[in-house]
Amino acid sequence: MKLMHLGDLHIGKSLNDYSLIDDQKYILNQILSIIDEQAVEILIIAGDIYDKAIPSEEAVRIFNDFICQLAVKKIKTFIISGNHDSDERLNFGSSLFKLSGIYISTKYEGKLFKYSIEHNNNNVNIYLLPFVKASTVKHYFPDEQIDSYDKAVRVILQNEPINKNEINILAAHQFVAGKNEQPVIGGSENASVKNIAIPNVGNVEKIGYDCFDDFDYVALGHIHSPQKIGKDTIRYAGSPLKYSISEIENNKSIPIISIDDNNTIDIDLIKLQPLRDIRHLIGKMEQLLNKNHITNPDDYIYVTLTDENPIENAITIIRQYYPNTLKLDYKNLHTGNTELIDLAKVTREKSFEELISDFYNMMFGCEMNEDEMKILLDTAKEAGITDETN
Ligand SMILES: [Mn+2]
Question: 31: part of which helix (H) or strand (E)?
Answer without folding.
Answer: helix 21-37
